[in-house]
């Protein structure tokens, strides 16, 4: 199992945790795993398989068009809105 799949699984688990403390801890853990996975992906010159923001799978077509993309189209546009106010 790759780190990216581990990250997605960790996010999913955290999102559905019944206890709010478990959920917070789980999301922190998922961020840690996700951070490692993203660094590894960048070192390999590849984009992420899963969105860095929402952990949804990034479509293959987008990854092909933007090999360095680390988040899905939706989150990317949200990031740009935030950046440009
Ligand atoms: Zn996303």
Please render the helix and strand layout as text.
Elements: H1 3-15, H2 20-43, H3 60-65, H4 73-84
The structure holds zinc ion (ZN).
Zinc ion (ZN) is lined by residues 51, 53-54, 56, 71-72, 74-75.
Mean pLDDT over the full residue set:
81
Order of helices and strands: HHHH
Strand tally is 0
Helix share bin: 55-70%
Alpha-beta content class: mainly alpha
Report on the structure:
By secondary structure, this protein is an all-alpha fold. The protein has one domain (3-84). The protein is 65% helix and 0% strand. It contains 4 helices and no strands. The protein has helices at residues 3-15, 20-43, 60-65, 73-84. Helix 1 runs antiparallel to helix 2 (20-43). The radius of gyration is 13 Å and the shape is globular. The termini are far apart. Zinc ion binds next to helix 4.
Can you give me a brief rundown of this structure?
65% of the residues lie in helices and 0% in strands. Helix 1 runs antiparallel to helix 2. Zinc ion (ZN) binds next to helix 4.
List keywords for this structure.
single chain; 85 residues; mainly alpha; 4 helices; binds zinc ion
């Amino acid at each position: 199992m790759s780190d990216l799949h581990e990250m997605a699984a960790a996010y999913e688990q955290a999102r559905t945790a019944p206890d709010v403390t478990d959920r917070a801890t789980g999301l922190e853990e998922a961020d840690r795993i996700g951070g490692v996975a993203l660094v590894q992906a960048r070192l390999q010159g590849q984009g992420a398989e899963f969105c860095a923001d929402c952990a949804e799978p990034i479509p293959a077509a987008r990854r092909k068009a933007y090999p360095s993309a680390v988040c899905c189209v939706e989150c990317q546009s949200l990031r740009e809105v935030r950046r440009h106010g």
